[in-house]
C-alpha cells in the first residue's frame, strides 16, 4: 500500500456540477483517509466559468487558462500541462471540459486521464448528444465514464448509467435527467479507480 498523496485535478469549462458532485463525494466518503486522495485543483479554459466560483466556495484551489490567448492547440495544451503538473496529479478528471485534446496531452496523462460523456458510448460521440439520441428514436440514453485516448470520446469504458428517453422529451429535459445520473456515476467511478490503485 502506498502512502503517497494522490492529487486529483479536475478540468471544467462551464457550470461544474459534476465537479461539485465529485468534491462532495470526496468529502462525505472521506477520500483523504480511504484513498489518500484529495482534489488539488479545478482548472478551466474559460476564465468566467461558473464552476470556478463554485470550486472556490468549496475551498478548492482554482486556475484559469484562456485558450483564446494561445495561437495553437499545441501551445495551449503545453501551457495547460504545465499548470496541471504543478499539482503532481495521480488523476486528471475531465468534467465538462469542452476542448479537443492534442495527442501529446493525452499521451502525457496516459492511464490517469478520464472523461464523462453524456451518451451511451460508443453511440453519439461529440456534441448535441441528447438531441441526436431523441432524433434517432432511442428509448434509452445515459452517460459514460471512460479513459481518454487520442480519439475523441473513445477509450476503455469504466462505467455507464442508463436513463429512459420519455415521450415528448426535449434535449434539455433529457440532459437534466442524464445529469442527475452523472452526479452519481462519476464520483463512484473515481472512487473505484482510486480503490484499484496501489
Ligand atoms: C455534462 O453533461 C458532461 O457530461 C458534458 O458536459 C456537461 C457538463 O456539466 N460533457 C461533455 O459533453 C464532454 N464531451 P457540468 O459543467 O455541470 O458538470
Any descriptors?
198 residues; 7-stranded mixed beta sheet; 7 helices; globular; binds glycinamide ribonucleotide
End-to-end Cα distance: 6 Å
Bound molecules: glycinamide ribonucleotide
At the fourth level of CATH, the homologous superfamily is: Formyl transferase, N-terminal domain
- What count of domains describes the coordinates? 1
Give the class from helix and strand content and strand pairing.
alpha/beta
Radius of gyration: 16 Å
Share of β-strand residues:
15-25%
> What is the CATH C level class, in words?
Alpha Beta
The residue fraction in helices comes out at 25-40%
Care to describe what's here?
The chain has 198 residues and is α/β, with parallel strands linked by helices. The protein has a single domain, classed as Formyl transferase, N-terminal domain (Rossmann fold), CATH 3.40.50. It is 39% helix and 23% strand. It has 7 helices and 7 strands; from the N terminus they run βααβαβαβαβαββα. The chain has a 7-stranded mixed β-sheet, sandwiched between helices. Bound molecules: glycinamide ribonucleotide. Glycinamide ribonucleotide (GAR) binds at residues 12, 14-18, 51, 95-96, 116-118, 143, 179, 182.
Short description:
The protein is α/β, with parallel strands linked by helices and 198 residues long.
Q: In terms of topology, how is this protein built?
A:
Blueprint: E1 6-12, H1 17-28, H2 31-35, E2 37-44, H3 50-57, E3 62-64, H4 73-85, E4 89-94, H5 103-108, E5 113-117, H6 129-135, E6 140-147, E7 157-164, H7 171-196
Parallel strand pairs: 1-2, 1-4, 2-3, 4-5
Antiparallel strand pairs: 5-6, 6-7
Helix pairs in contact: 1-7, 6-7
The structure holds glycinamide ribonucleotide.
Amino acid at each position: 500500500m502506498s502512502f503517497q498523496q494522490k492529487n486529483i485535478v479536475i478540468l471544467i469549462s462551464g457550470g461544474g456540477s459534476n465537479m461539485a458532485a465529485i468534491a462532495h463525494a470526496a468529502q462525505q466518503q472521506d477520500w483523504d483517509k480511504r484513498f489518500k486522495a484529495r482534489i488539488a485543483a479545478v482548472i478551466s479554459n474559460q476564465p468566467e466559468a461558473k464552476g470556478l466560483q463554485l470550486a472556490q466556495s468549496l475551498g478548492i484551489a482554482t486556475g484559469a487558462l484562456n485558450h483564446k490567448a494561445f495561437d495553437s492547440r499545441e501551445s495551449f495544451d503545453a501551457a495547460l500541462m504545465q499548470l496541471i503538473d504543478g499539482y503532481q496529479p495521480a488523476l486528471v478528471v475531465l468534467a465538462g471540459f469542452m476542448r479537443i485534446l492534442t495527442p501529446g496531452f493525452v499521451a502525457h496523462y496516459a492511464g490517469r486521464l478520464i472523461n464523462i460523456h453524456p451518451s451511451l458510448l460508443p453511440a453519439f460521440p461529440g456534441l448535441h448528444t441528447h438531441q441526436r439520441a431523441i432524433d434517432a428514436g432511442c428509448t434509452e440514453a445515459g452517460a459514460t465514464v471512460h479513459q481518454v485516448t487520442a480519439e475523441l470520446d473513445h477509450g476503455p469504458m469504466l462505467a455507464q448509467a442508463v436513463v429512459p428517453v420519455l415521450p415528448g422529451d426535449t434535449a434539455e429535459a433529457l440532459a437534466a435527467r442524464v445529469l442527475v445520473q452523472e452526479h452519481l456515476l462519476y464520483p463512484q467511478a473515481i472512487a473505484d479507480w482510486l480503490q484499484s490503485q496501489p
